[in-house]
Amino acid sequence: MPTRCLICVSILAAVVAGSCSRPAPPPPVDEATLTAQALRRFDENKFGMFIHWGLYAIPAGEWKGQYVRGIGEWIMFHAKIPVKEYEQLAAQFNPVKFNAEEWTQLAQDAGMRYLVITAKHHDGFAMYHSKASPYNIVDATPYGKDPMVELAAACARRGIGFGFYYSQDQDWHEPHGRGNTWDFPAERNPQIYFQGKVLPQVQELLTGYGPLALIWFDTPGMLSEQQVTELRRLVKRHQPSCLLNSRIGHGKGDYLQTSDNAIPIQVHTKVKWEVPATLNDTWGYKKNDQNWKDPADLIAKLTDIAAKGGNYLLNVGPDAEGVIPEPSQKILRTVGRWLAANGEAIFGTTASPFYVDGISWRVTAKPSRLYLHLLEWPGTKFRLAGLETEVKQAHFLANGLAVPFKQSGTAVDFELPPKPVDPYNTVVVLTLADPVARVAAGYRAEDIPDRVELWAWTARLVGEEIRYDRARRSATRFVKVDSPGNELRWYPYGALGGEYQVELTYACENHRAGSRFRIGVHPSNTEMTQSLTGQIEATGGRFLTRRVPGAITLGPDDLFISFSLPEEDRSADVRLQRLTLIRRK
Ligand code: JFZ
Protein backbone atom coordinates (compact mmCIF):
# COMPACT_ATOMS: atom_id res chain seq x y z
CA MET A 1 0.00 0.00 0.00
CA PRO A 2 2.62 2.63 0.89
CA THR A 3 4.51 1.70 -2.32
CA ARG A 4 1.46 2.38 -4.45
CA CYS A 5 0.91 5.70 -2.77
CA LEU A 6 4.49 6.68 -3.49
CA ILE A 7 4.04 5.83 -7.16
CA CYS A 8 0.77 7.82 -7.28
CA VAL A 9 2.52 10.75 -5.67
CA SER A 10 5.39 10.60 -8.15
CA ILE A 11 3.03 10.32 -11.14
CA LEU A 12 1.07 13.25 -9.79
CA ALA A 13 4.25 15.22 -9.27
CA ALA A 14 5.37 14.50 -12.82
CA VAL A 15 1.98 15.50 -14.23
CA VAL A 16 1.82 18.64 -12.14
CA ALA A 17 5.34 19.57 -13.13
CA GLY A 18 4.29 18.97 -16.72
CA SER A 19 7.87 18.13 -17.54
CA CYS A 20 7.24 14.75 -19.11
CA SER A 21 4.42 12.27 -19.63
CA ARG A 22 6.15 9.33 -17.98
CA PRO A 23 6.42 8.92 -14.22
CA ALA A 24 9.81 9.51 -12.71
CA PRO A 25 11.67 6.25 -12.12
CA PRO A 26 11.30 5.00 -8.56
CA PRO A 27 14.25 5.89 -6.38
CA PRO A 28 16.82 3.09 -6.48
CA VAL A 29 16.62 0.84 -3.45
CA ASP A 30 20.10 0.46 -2.11
CA GLU A 31 21.73 -2.66 -0.80
CA ALA A 32 21.58 -1.54 2.82
CA THR A 33 17.80 -1.02 2.62
CA LEU A 34 17.23 -4.38 0.96
CA THR A 35 19.43 -6.08 3.52
CA ALA A 36 17.52 -4.39 6.35
CA GLN A 37 14.19 -5.51 4.84
CA ALA A 38 15.47 -9.06 4.45
CA LEU A 39 16.68 -9.03 8.05
CA ARG A 40 13.21 -8.00 9.21
CA ARG A 41 11.65 -10.91 7.35
CA PHE A 42 14.31 -13.21 8.74
CA ASP A 43 13.59 -11.96 12.26
CA GLU A 44 9.85 -12.52 11.82
CA ASN A 45 10.38 -16.06 10.53
CA LYS A 46 12.06 -17.20 13.78
CA PHE A 47 12.22 -20.90 12.99
CA GLY A 48 14.07 -22.62 10.15
CA MET A 49 15.07 -26.07 8.98
CA PHE A 50 18.76 -26.81 8.58
CA ILE A 51 19.61 -29.79 6.36
CA HIS A 52 23.05 -31.43 6.41
CA TRP A 53 23.10 -33.84 3.51
CA GLY A 54 26.07 -35.21 1.62
CA LEU A 55 28.25 -38.24 0.90
CA TYR A 56 28.86 -38.65 4.64
CA ALA A 57 25.30 -40.01 4.89
CA ILE A 58 26.61 -43.26 3.36
CA PRO A 59 29.19 -44.18 6.04
CA ALA A 60 26.73 -42.71 8.58
CA GLY A 61 29.27 -42.61 11.41
CA GLU A 62 31.20 -45.82 10.66
CA TRP A 63 34.34 -46.35 8.61
CA LYS A 64 35.62 -49.82 7.72
CA GLY A 65 33.49 -51.34 10.44
CA GLN A 66 34.72 -48.92 13.11
CA TYR A 67 32.58 -46.40 14.93
CA VAL A 68 33.95 -42.88 14.40
CA ARG A 69 33.37 -40.43 17.25
CA GLY A 70 32.09 -36.93 16.57
CA ILE A 71 29.68 -35.29 14.16
CA GLY A 72 28.82 -37.41 11.13
CA GLU A 73 29.72 -34.92 8.39
CA TRP A 74 33.27 -34.77 9.80
CA ILE A 75 33.97 -38.47 9.22
CA MET A 76 36.45 -37.81 6.42
CA PHE A 77 38.46 -35.58 8.75
CA HIS A 78 38.20 -37.69 11.88
CA ALA A 79 39.09 -40.97 10.15
CA LYS A 80 41.65 -39.19 7.93
CA ILE A 81 40.09 -40.77 4.87
CA PRO A 82 42.21 -40.16 1.76
CA VAL A 83 40.52 -38.12 -0.96
CA LYS A 84 40.80 -41.02 -3.41
CA GLU A 85 38.93 -43.31 -1.01
CA TYR A 86 36.30 -40.80 0.04
CA GLU A 87 35.61 -39.97 -3.61
CA GLN A 88 34.46 -43.57 -4.08
CA LEU A 89 31.39 -42.74 -2.04
CA ALA A 90 30.11 -40.62 -4.92
CA ALA A 91 29.90 -43.70 -7.16
CA GLN A 92 27.50 -45.23 -4.59
CA PHE A 93 25.39 -42.17 -3.90
CA ASN A 94 21.91 -42.76 -5.25
CA PRO A 95 19.25 -41.09 -3.07
CA VAL A 96 16.28 -42.39 -5.04
CA LYS A 97 13.87 -41.62 -2.20
CA PHE A 98 14.69 -37.90 -2.21
CA ASN A 99 11.41 -36.02 -2.51
CA ALA A 100 11.40 -32.23 -2.29
CA GLU A 101 7.66 -32.20 -1.62
CA GLU A 102 8.04 -34.47 1.38
CA TRP A 103 10.91 -32.46 2.84
CA THR A 104 9.20 -29.12 2.43
CA GLN A 105 5.90 -30.56 3.67
CA LEU A 106 7.74 -31.61 6.82
CA ALA A 107 9.25 -28.13 7.20
CA GLN A 108 5.78 -26.66 6.88
CA ASP A 109 4.21 -29.17 9.26
CA ALA A 110 6.91 -28.25 11.77
CA GLY A 111 6.07 -24.55 11.39
CA MET A 112 9.48 -23.77 9.92
CA ARG A 113 9.55 -20.72 7.68
CA TYR A 114 12.96 -21.00 6.07
CA LEU A 115 15.25 -23.79 5.01
CA VAL A 116 19.03 -23.95 4.68
CA ILE A 117 20.72 -26.90 2.98
CA THR A 118 24.35 -27.88 2.48
CA ALA A 119 25.33 -27.03 -1.09
CA LYS A 120 28.90 -27.99 -0.24
CA HIS A 121 30.21 -29.05 3.15
CA HIS A 122 33.83 -29.36 4.31
CA ASP A 123 34.22 -32.60 2.33
CA GLY A 124 34.14 -30.47 -0.82
CA PHE A 125 31.39 -32.39 -2.60
CA ALA A 126 28.79 -30.21 -4.34
CA MET A 127 25.24 -31.42 -3.74
CA TYR A 128 24.06 -29.49 -6.80
CA HIS A 129 25.07 -29.37 -10.47
CA SER A 130 28.31 -27.39 -10.43
CA LYS A 131 30.12 -26.49 -13.63
CA ALA A 132 33.08 -25.29 -11.60
CA SER A 133 33.89 -28.75 -10.21
CA PRO A 134 33.00 -32.20 -11.56
CA TYR A 135 32.92 -33.41 -7.95
CA ASN A 136 29.17 -32.92 -7.72
CA ILE A 137 25.95 -34.91 -7.43
CA VAL A 138 25.02 -34.69 -11.10
CA ASP A 139 28.36 -35.52 -12.70
CA ALA A 140 29.81 -37.93 -10.14
CA THR A 141 26.93 -40.09 -8.90
CA PRO A 142 24.56 -42.66 -10.40
CA TYR A 143 21.71 -40.43 -9.22
CA GLY A 144 22.64 -37.84 -11.84
CA LYS A 145 20.05 -35.20 -10.88
CA ASP A 146 20.22 -31.84 -9.10
CA PRO A 147 18.00 -32.08 -5.98
CA MET A 148 18.43 -28.37 -5.27
CA VAL A 149 16.41 -27.35 -8.32
CA GLU A 150 13.36 -29.18 -6.99
CA LEU A 151 13.96 -28.10 -3.41
CA ALA A 152 14.25 -24.42 -4.33
CA ALA A 153 11.06 -24.67 -6.39
CA ALA A 154 9.14 -26.48 -3.64
CA CYS A 155 10.20 -23.83 -1.11
CA ALA A 156 9.14 -21.04 -3.47
CA ARG A 157 5.69 -22.66 -3.95
CA ARG A 158 5.17 -22.93 -0.21
CA GLY A 159 6.55 -19.52 0.70
CA ILE A 160 9.48 -21.00 2.62
CA GLY A 161 12.67 -18.90 2.49
CA PHE A 162 15.41 -20.90 0.76
CA GLY A 163 19.12 -20.69 1.54
CA PHE A 164 22.35 -22.55 0.96
CA TYR A 165 25.05 -23.58 3.42
CA TYR A 166 28.45 -23.28 1.74
CA SER A 167 31.80 -24.18 3.32
CA GLN A 168 33.94 -21.39 1.93
CA ASP A 169 37.07 -21.99 3.95
CA GLN A 170 37.49 -25.65 4.80
CA ASP A 171 37.55 -27.95 1.79
CA TRP A 172 39.21 -31.32 2.40
CA HIS A 173 39.00 -32.26 -1.26
CA GLU A 174 41.23 -29.43 -2.47
CA PRO A 175 44.98 -29.09 -1.91
CA HIS A 176 44.55 -25.33 -1.41
CA GLY A 177 41.38 -25.48 0.66
CA ARG A 178 41.77 -25.59 4.44
CA GLY A 179 41.79 -28.71 6.55
CA ASN A 180 43.14 -31.73 4.71
CA THR A 181 46.60 -32.34 6.15
CA TRP A 182 46.66 -36.09 5.48
CA ASP A 183 46.66 -35.89 1.66
CA PHE A 184 48.22 -32.54 0.94
CA PRO A 185 51.34 -30.62 1.94
CA ALA A 186 50.88 -27.93 4.58
CA GLU A 187 51.62 -25.12 2.10
CA ARG A 188 48.42 -23.48 0.85
CA ASN A 189 47.67 -20.87 -1.73
CA PRO A 190 44.16 -19.91 -0.67
CA GLN A 191 43.74 -17.71 -3.73
CA ILE A 192 43.91 -20.73 -6.08
CA TYR A 193 41.08 -22.41 -4.20
CA PHE A 194 39.14 -19.19 -3.71
CA GLN A 195 39.30 -18.14 -7.37
CA GLY A 196 38.98 -21.62 -8.78
CA LYS A 197 36.17 -23.01 -6.65
CA VAL A 198 34.58 -20.70 -4.10
CA LEU A 199 33.76 -17.69 -6.26
CA PRO A 200 32.48 -19.69 -9.26
CA GLN A 201 30.44 -22.04 -7.10
CA VAL A 202 28.88 -19.29 -5.02
CA GLN A 203 28.01 -17.49 -8.27
CA GLU A 204 26.34 -20.68 -9.52
CA LEU A 205 24.26 -20.85 -6.37
CA LEU A 206 23.24 -17.21 -6.74
CA THR A 207 22.23 -17.54 -10.37
CA GLY A 208 20.70 -21.00 -10.66
CA TYR A 209 18.12 -21.37 -7.89
CA GLY A 210 16.01 -18.23 -7.78
CA PRO A 211 16.03 -15.75 -4.92
CA LEU A 212 18.01 -16.93 -1.91
CA ALA A 213 16.98 -15.89 1.57
CA LEU A 214 20.54 -16.34 2.75
CA ILE A 215 23.89 -18.01 2.27
CA TRP A 216 25.19 -19.69 5.39
CA PHE A 217 28.97 -19.67 5.33
CA ASP A 218 30.91 -21.59 7.94
CA THR A 219 34.13 -21.99 9.92
CA PRO A 220 36.13 -19.01 8.61
CA GLY A 221 39.86 -19.01 9.23
CA MET A 222 42.10 -19.02 6.20
CA LEU A 223 40.53 -16.50 3.84
CA SER A 224 41.76 -12.91 4.06
CA GLU A 225 39.62 -9.89 4.78
CA GLN A 226 39.99 -8.89 1.15
CA GLN A 227 38.80 -12.28 -0.07
CA VAL A 228 35.81 -12.18 2.26
CA THR A 229 34.97 -8.66 1.07
CA GLU A 230 35.04 -9.93 -2.51
CA LEU A 231 32.81 -12.85 -1.57
CA ARG A 232 30.32 -10.55 0.11
CA ARG A 233 30.31 -8.21 -2.92
CA LEU A 234 29.68 -11.12 -5.25
CA VAL A 235 26.63 -12.16 -3.25
CA LYS A 236 25.20 -8.66 -2.90
CA ARG A 237 25.83 -7.85 -6.57
CA HIS A 238 23.69 -10.77 -7.69
CA GLN A 239 21.19 -10.74 -4.85
CA PRO A 240 21.28 -7.72 -2.55
CA SER A 241 18.48 -9.22 -0.42
CA CYS A 242 20.43 -12.41 0.23
CA LEU A 243 21.56 -12.37 3.86
CA LEU A 244 25.00 -13.43 5.01
CA ASN A 245 25.71 -14.97 8.37
CA SER A 246 28.63 -13.94 10.56
CA ARG A 247 30.58 -17.11 9.77
CA ILE A 248 31.53 -15.57 6.44
CA GLY A 249 34.32 -14.15 8.62
CA HIS A 250 36.07 -10.81 9.29
CA GLY A 251 32.85 -9.28 10.66
CA LYS A 252 31.30 -9.13 7.18
CA GLY A 253 28.00 -10.88 7.94
CA ASP A 254 24.53 -9.36 8.22
CA TYR A 255 23.62 -11.25 11.37
CA LEU A 256 25.32 -13.19 14.14
CA GLN A 257 25.63 -16.92 14.46
CA THR A 258 25.93 -18.20 17.98
CA SER A 259 28.00 -21.29 18.63
CA ASP A 260 26.21 -24.52 17.82
CA ASN A 261 23.35 -25.21 20.24
CA ALA A 262 24.40 -22.12 22.21
CA ILE A 263 21.59 -19.84 23.39
CA PRO A 264 22.57 -16.53 25.01
CA ILE A 265 21.78 -16.54 28.73
CA GLN A 266 19.80 -13.28 28.51
CA VAL A 267 17.82 -11.13 26.10
CA HIS A 268 20.25 -10.06 23.38
CA THR A 269 18.98 -7.45 20.94
CA LYS A 270 22.05 -5.44 19.99
CA VAL A 271 22.33 -7.56 16.86
CA LYS A 272 20.11 -10.12 15.17
CA TRP A 273 21.26 -13.66 15.90
CA GLU A 274 20.50 -17.27 15.08
CA VAL A 275 21.18 -20.51 16.94
CA PRO A 276 22.10 -23.46 14.72
CA ALA A 277 21.06 -26.59 16.58
CA THR A 278 20.97 -30.34 16.28
CA LEU A 279 18.03 -32.66 16.96
CA ASN A 280 20.44 -35.31 18.23
CA ASP A 281 24.27 -35.01 18.52
CA THR A 282 25.16 -34.83 14.84
CA TRP A 283 24.35 -32.71 11.79
CA GLY A 284 25.05 -35.24 9.05
CA TYR A 285 23.21 -38.59 9.35
CA LYS A 286 24.73 -41.08 11.82
CA LYS A 287 22.88 -44.33 12.10
CA ASN A 288 23.65 -44.95 15.78
CA ASP A 289 22.86 -41.51 17.12
CA GLN A 290 19.46 -41.86 18.77
CA ASN A 291 19.99 -39.12 21.36
CA TRP A 292 16.95 -37.15 20.21
CA LYS A 293 15.83 -34.02 21.99
CA ASP A 294 12.22 -34.32 22.99
CA PRO A 295 9.48 -32.00 21.70
CA ALA A 296 9.01 -30.42 25.14
CA ASP A 297 12.66 -29.39 25.13
CA LEU A 298 12.51 -28.06 21.57
CA ILE A 299 9.31 -26.06 22.14
CA ALA A 300 10.83 -24.57 25.28
CA LYS A 301 14.08 -23.78 23.43
CA LEU A 302 12.22 -22.13 20.55
CA THR A 303 10.34 -20.06 23.11
CA ASP A 304 13.52 -19.23 25.02
CA ILE A 305 15.23 -18.13 21.80
CA ALA A 306 12.28 -16.01 20.65
CA ALA A 307 12.06 -14.41 24.12
CA LYS A 308 15.75 -13.48 23.87
CA GLY A 309 15.47 -12.07 20.34
CA GLY A 310 16.95 -14.86 18.24
CA ASN A 311 16.13 -17.35 15.50
CA TYR A 312 16.26 -21.13 15.78
CA LEU A 313 17.74 -23.11 12.89
CA LEU A 314 17.06 -26.74 13.70
CA ASN A 315 18.81 -29.51 11.82
CA VAL A 316 17.76 -32.73 10.16
CA GLY A 317 20.23 -35.17 8.61
CA PRO A 318 18.66 -37.16 5.76
CA ASP A 319 20.10 -40.61 5.09
CA ALA A 320 21.85 -41.81 1.92
CA GLU A 321 18.54 -42.68 0.28
CA GLY A 322 17.25 -39.18 0.85
CA VAL A 323 14.94 -39.94 3.76
CA ILE A 324 14.72 -37.73 6.83
CA PRO A 325 14.93 -40.10 9.83
CA GLU A 326 11.51 -41.07 11.18
CA PRO A 327 12.22 -39.87 14.76
CA SER A 328 13.17 -36.41 13.41
CA GLN A 329 9.91 -36.24 11.50
CA LYS A 330 7.82 -37.29 14.45
CA ILE A 331 9.46 -34.83 16.83
CA LEU A 332 9.22 -31.93 14.39
CA ARG A 333 5.56 -32.57 13.68
CA THR A 334 4.85 -32.44 17.41
CA VAL A 335 6.59 -29.07 17.61
CA GLY A 336 4.53 -28.01 14.58
CA ARG A 337 1.24 -28.92 16.25
CA TRP A 338 2.11 -26.66 19.16
CA LEU A 339 3.03 -23.87 16.74
CA ALA A 340 -0.18 -24.31 14.76
CA ALA A 341 -2.11 -23.33 17.89
CA ASN A 342 0.44 -20.94 19.42
CA GLY A 343 2.51 -19.54 16.53
CA GLU A 344 1.10 -16.06 17.11
CA ALA A 345 3.24 -15.96 20.27
CA ILE A 346 6.43 -16.78 18.33
CA PHE A 347 6.34 -15.52 14.73
CA GLY A 348 6.78 -11.80 14.28
CA THR A 349 7.30 -11.21 18.00
CA THR A 350 9.97 -9.13 19.66
CA ALA A 351 12.07 -10.10 22.64
CA SER A 352 10.97 -10.07 26.25
CA PRO A 353 10.93 -6.61 27.85
CA PHE A 354 11.75 -8.40 31.15
CA TYR A 355 15.10 -9.90 32.02
CA VAL A 356 15.11 -13.67 31.79
CA ASP A 357 14.55 -15.27 35.19
CA GLY A 358 14.79 -19.01 35.80
CA ILE A 359 13.55 -21.62 33.35
CA SER A 360 9.84 -21.99 34.02
CA TRP A 361 8.41 -19.06 32.02
CA ARG A 362 9.24 -16.61 29.24
CA VAL A 363 7.68 -13.56 27.60
CA THR A 364 7.48 -12.47 23.96
CA ALA A 365 5.89 -9.26 22.70
CA LYS A 366 3.91 -7.60 19.91
CA PRO A 367 2.37 -4.14 19.76
CA SER A 368 -0.13 -3.88 22.67
CA ARG A 369 0.41 -7.54 23.53
CA LEU A 370 2.54 -9.63 25.79
CA TYR A 371 2.65 -13.40 25.51
CA LEU A 372 3.34 -15.19 28.74
CA HIS A 373 4.73 -18.66 28.02
CA LEU A 374 4.29 -21.06 30.93
CA LEU A 375 6.87 -23.79 30.27
CA GLU A 376 6.34 -25.47 33.63
CA TRP A 377 2.88 -25.36 35.13
CA PRO A 378 2.99 -23.12 38.22
CA GLY A 379 -0.20 -24.50 39.80
CA THR A 380 -3.27 -22.30 40.24
CA LYS A 381 -1.44 -19.02 40.80
CA PHE A 382 1.16 -17.11 38.83
CA ARG A 383 2.55 -13.64 39.53
CA LEU A 384 4.11 -11.51 36.82
CA ALA A 385 6.10 -8.83 38.62
CA GLY A 386 7.33 -5.51 37.31
CA LEU A 387 4.70 -4.50 34.75
CA GLU A 388 3.66 -0.81 34.89
CA THR A 389 1.35 -0.89 31.88
CA GLU A 390 -2.31 -1.65 32.56
CA VAL A 391 -3.47 -5.08 31.44
CA LYS A 392 -6.88 -4.80 29.77
CA GLN A 393 -7.60 -8.45 29.23
CA ALA A 394 -5.98 -11.88 29.43
CA HIS A 395 -6.81 -15.14 27.66
CA PHE A 396 -5.29 -18.48 26.71
CA LEU A 397 -3.99 -18.36 23.17
CA ALA A 398 -4.85 -21.97 22.37
CA ASN A 399 -8.54 -21.90 23.33
CA GLY A 400 -9.49 -18.24 23.72
CA LEU A 401 -10.77 -18.66 27.29
CA ALA A 402 -10.38 -15.67 29.58
CA VAL A 403 -7.78 -15.89 32.35
CA PRO A 404 -8.88 -14.14 35.56
CA PHE A 405 -6.27 -11.74 36.97
CA LYS A 406 -5.76 -8.88 39.40
CA GLN A 407 -3.32 -6.09 38.87
CA SER A 408 -2.04 -4.20 41.87
CA GLY A 409 0.92 -1.91 41.66
CA THR A 410 3.29 -3.51 39.21
CA ALA A 411 2.21 -7.08 39.99
CA VAL A 412 -0.25 -9.06 37.90
CA ASP A 413 -1.67 -12.11 39.67
CA PHE A 414 -3.25 -14.73 37.47
CA GLU A 415 -5.68 -17.41 38.53
CA LEU A 416 -5.01 -20.57 36.62
CA PRO A 417 -6.70 -23.95 36.27
CA PRO A 418 -4.94 -26.82 38.08
CA LYS A 419 -3.81 -28.38 34.78
CA PRO A 420 -2.01 -26.74 31.86
CA VAL A 421 -3.99 -26.00 28.71
CA ASP A 422 -1.06 -27.33 26.69
CA PRO A 423 1.32 -29.99 28.03
CA TYR A 424 4.39 -28.22 26.57
CA ASN A 425 3.81 -24.51 26.83
CA THR A 426 0.57 -22.77 27.76
CA VAL A 427 0.49 -19.25 26.36
CA VAL A 428 -1.46 -16.46 28.07
CA VAL A 429 -2.10 -13.38 25.91
CA LEU A 430 -2.14 -10.06 27.75
CA THR A 431 -3.81 -7.16 25.98
CA LEU A 432 -2.14 -3.93 27.08
CA ALA A 433 -3.27 -0.35 27.41
CA ASP A 434 0.05 0.82 25.88
CA PRO A 435 1.50 -0.22 22.51
CA VAL A 436 4.81 -1.00 24.21
CA ALA A 437 4.84 -2.56 27.67
CA ARG A 438 6.27 -0.28 30.34
CA VAL A 439 8.37 -2.35 32.69
CA ALA A 440 9.42 -1.19 36.13
CA ALA A 441 13.09 -0.47 36.83
CA GLY A 442 14.82 -3.55 38.17
CA TYR A 443 12.77 -5.87 35.93
CA ARG A 444 13.79 -4.63 32.49
CA ALA A 445 15.69 -6.81 30.06
CA GLU A 446 18.80 -4.68 30.55
CA ASP A 447 18.56 -4.71 34.39
CA ILE A 448 20.55 -7.86 34.99
CA PRO A 449 20.26 -8.65 38.72
CA ASP A 450 23.21 -9.24 41.02
CA ARG A 451 22.32 -12.91 41.32
CA VAL A 452 22.17 -14.67 37.98
CA GLU A 453 21.17 -18.30 37.72
CA LEU A 454 22.80 -20.31 34.97
CA TRP A 455 20.54 -23.35 34.67
CA ALA A 456 21.75 -26.55 33.08
CA TRP A 457 18.77 -26.33 30.77
CA THR A 458 20.02 -23.08 29.25
CA ALA A 459 23.56 -24.40 28.73
CA ARG A 460 25.10 -25.72 25.58
CA LEU A 461 25.74 -29.41 26.22
CA VAL A 462 29.05 -30.39 24.70
CA GLY A 463 29.95 -34.04 24.23
CA GLU A 464 28.14 -37.19 23.19
CA GLU A 465 27.52 -38.68 26.62
CA ILE A 466 26.05 -35.78 28.47
CA ARG A 467 22.26 -35.75 28.91
CA TYR A 468 19.66 -33.31 30.13
CA ASP A 469 16.97 -34.75 32.36
CA ARG A 470 13.87 -32.56 32.21
CA ALA A 471 12.10 -34.28 35.06
CA ARG A 472 14.99 -33.50 37.43
CA ARG A 473 15.94 -30.22 35.75
CA SER A 474 19.57 -31.24 35.64
CA ALA A 475 22.36 -32.39 33.37
CA THR A 476 24.15 -35.64 34.00
CA ARG A 477 26.71 -38.11 32.59
CA PHE A 478 29.80 -35.93 32.68
CA VAL A 479 31.77 -38.97 31.57
CA LYS A 480 35.38 -38.26 30.80
CA VAL A 481 36.29 -39.67 27.41
CA ASP A 482 39.29 -39.30 25.14
CA SER A 483 37.92 -36.39 23.18
CA PRO A 484 36.02 -34.19 23.22
CA GLY A 485 35.23 -33.71 26.88
CA ASN A 486 31.74 -33.50 28.22
CA GLU A 487 30.89 -30.12 29.63
CA LEU A 488 28.24 -27.42 29.98
CA ARG A 489 28.77 -23.96 28.54
CA TRP A 490 26.90 -20.72 29.12
CA TYR A 491 27.23 -17.75 26.77
CA PRO A 492 26.65 -14.34 28.37
CA TYR A 493 26.98 -12.29 25.16
CA GLY A 494 27.88 -9.22 27.16
CA ALA A 495 25.16 -9.59 29.80
CA LEU A 496 27.63 -10.12 32.66
CA GLY A 497 30.48 -7.95 33.83
CA GLY A 498 32.43 -7.71 37.05
CA GLU A 499 33.54 -10.02 39.78
CA TYR A 500 31.32 -12.95 40.74
CA GLN A 501 31.25 -15.62 43.39
CA VAL A 502 29.80 -18.91 42.30
CA GLU A 503 27.35 -21.34 43.88
CA LEU A 504 26.74 -24.81 42.53
CA THR A 505 23.45 -26.65 42.87
CA TYR A 506 23.91 -30.36 42.31
CA ALA A 507 23.11 -33.85 43.51
CA CYS A 508 25.45 -36.81 43.89
CA GLU A 509 24.97 -40.31 45.30
CA ASN A 510 27.23 -40.88 48.31
CA HIS A 511 29.29 -43.69 46.80
CA ARG A 512 29.99 -41.61 43.68
CA ALA A 513 31.32 -38.47 45.35
CA GLY A 514 34.84 -37.15 45.23
CA SER A 515 35.50 -36.01 41.66
CA ARG A 516 37.03 -32.63 41.03
CA PHE A 517 34.90 -30.15 39.19
CA ARG A 518 36.08 -27.13 37.25
CA ILE A 519 34.35 -23.89 36.41
CA GLY A 520 36.15 -22.09 33.59
CA VAL A 521 36.05 -18.67 31.95
CA HIS A 522 36.78 -18.72 28.22
CA PRO A 523 37.43 -15.69 26.03
CA SER A 524 37.44 -17.97 22.97
CA ASN A 525 36.81 -21.57 21.95
CA THR A 526 40.44 -22.49 22.53
CA GLU A 527 41.31 -20.56 25.69
CA MET A 528 40.52 -20.74 29.38
CA THR A 529 41.86 -17.77 31.33
CA GLN A 530 40.36 -18.40 34.77
CA SER A 531 39.13 -21.40 36.65
CA LEU A 532 37.71 -22.42 39.98
CA THR A 533 37.97 -25.98 41.16
CA GLY A 534 36.54 -28.02 43.98
CA GLN A 535 35.37 -31.47 44.93
CA ILE A 536 31.93 -32.96 44.39
CA GLU A 537 30.46 -33.82 47.77
CA ALA A 538 28.12 -36.63 48.67
CA THR A 539 24.56 -35.28 48.83
CA GLY A 540 22.67 -38.53 49.28
CA GLY A 541 21.21 -37.92 45.84
CA ARG A 542 19.43 -34.70 46.95
CA PHE A 543 20.10 -31.32 45.40
CA LEU A 544 22.27 -29.07 47.55
CA THR A 545 23.74 -25.65 46.94
CA ARG A 546 27.41 -25.12 47.75
CA ARG A 547 29.52 -21.98 47.57
CA VAL A 548 32.68 -22.49 45.51
CA PRO A 549 35.77 -20.86 47.04
CA GLY A 550 37.23 -17.99 45.06
CA ALA A 551 35.72 -15.71 42.41
CA ILE A 552 35.73 -15.15 38.68
CA THR A 553 35.87 -11.89 36.77
CA LEU A 554 33.80 -11.59 33.64
CA GLY A 555 34.42 -9.01 30.96
CA PRO A 556 32.33 -8.07 27.92
CA ASP A 557 34.56 -10.14 25.63
CA ASP A 558 34.36 -13.41 27.51
CA LEU A 559 32.71 -15.99 25.28
CA PHE A 560 31.53 -18.64 27.73
CA ILE A 561 31.60 -20.08 31.24
CA SER A 562 32.05 -23.83 31.52
CA PHE A 563 31.38 -26.58 34.02
CA SER A 564 33.11 -29.96 33.76
CA LEU A 565 34.63 -32.86 35.67
CA PRO A 566 37.91 -32.83 33.80
CA GLU A 567 39.99 -35.33 35.73
CA GLU A 568 38.01 -38.46 36.41
CA ASP A 569 34.56 -39.83 35.92
CA ARG A 570 33.83 -41.40 39.27
CA SER A 571 30.93 -39.02 39.69
CA ALA A 572 29.85 -39.15 36.10
CA ASP A 573 26.32 -39.37 37.41
CA VAL A 574 26.55 -36.11 39.33
CA ARG A 575 23.49 -34.06 38.46
CA LEU A 576 24.15 -30.40 37.89
CA GLN A 577 21.11 -28.18 38.15
CA ARG A 578 22.62 -24.72 38.02
CA LEU A 579 25.40 -22.32 38.76
CA THR A 580 24.47 -19.10 40.52
CA LEU A 581 26.70 -16.10 39.96
CA ILE A 582 26.67 -13.56 42.76
CA ARG A 583 28.11 -10.19 41.92
CA ARG A 584 30.64 -8.75 44.33
CA LYS A 585 30.10 -5.13 45.08
C1 JFZ B 1 30.34 -26.15 11.85
C2 JFZ B 1 30.68 -27.33 10.96
O1 JFZ B 1 32.03 -27.68 11.11
C3 JFZ B 1 29.76 -28.48 11.30
O2 JFZ B 1 30.06 -29.59 10.50
C4 JFZ B 1 28.33 -28.05 11.08
O3 JFZ B 1 28.12 -27.75 9.71
C5 JFZ B 1 28.02 -26.84 11.94
C6 JFZ B 1 26.66 -26.26 11.68
O4 JFZ B 1 28.97 -25.79 11.74
O5 JFZ B 1 30.73 -26.47 13.17
C7 JFZ B 1 30.92 -25.51 14.08
C8 JFZ B 1 31.15 -24.20 13.80
C9 JFZ B 1 31.31 -23.27 14.82
C10 JFZ B 1 31.23 -23.67 16.13
C11 JFZ B 1 30.99 -24.98 16.43
C12 JFZ B 1 30.85 -25.91 15.41
N1 JFZ B 1 31.36 -22.75 17.16
O6 JFZ B 1 31.50 -21.53 16.92
O7 JFZ B 1 31.33 -23.12 18.35
Description:
The chain is an alpha/beta fold and 585 residues long. It has 3 domains: 44-345, TIM Barrel (Alpha-Beta Barrel); 361-432, Immunoglobulin-like (Sandwich); 451-583, Jelly Rolls (Sandwich), CATH 2.60.120. It contains 10 helices and 28 strands. The protein has helices at 2-17, 31-45, 75-78, 83-92, 100-109, 147-158, 190-208, 225-238, 295-308, 326-342; strands at residues 47-51, 62-63, 66-67, 114-120, 161-166, 214-217, 243-244, 256-257, 273-277, 310-316, 361-366, 369-374, 381-385, 391-396, 405-408, 411-415, 426-432, 451-455, 460-462, 467-469, 474-476, 487-490, 498-507, 516-522, 530-535, 544-554, 560-564, 575-583. Strands 7-6-5-4-1-10-9-8 form an 8-stranded parallel beta sheet, sandwiched between helices. Strand 9 (273-277), helix 9 (295-308) and strand 10 form a beta-alpha-beta unit. Helix 7 packs parallel to helix 8 (225-238). The N and C termini lie far apart (54 Å). Mean pLDDT is 94; it is low at 1-20. Bound molecules: 4-nitrophenyl 6-deoxy-alpha-L-galactopyranoside.
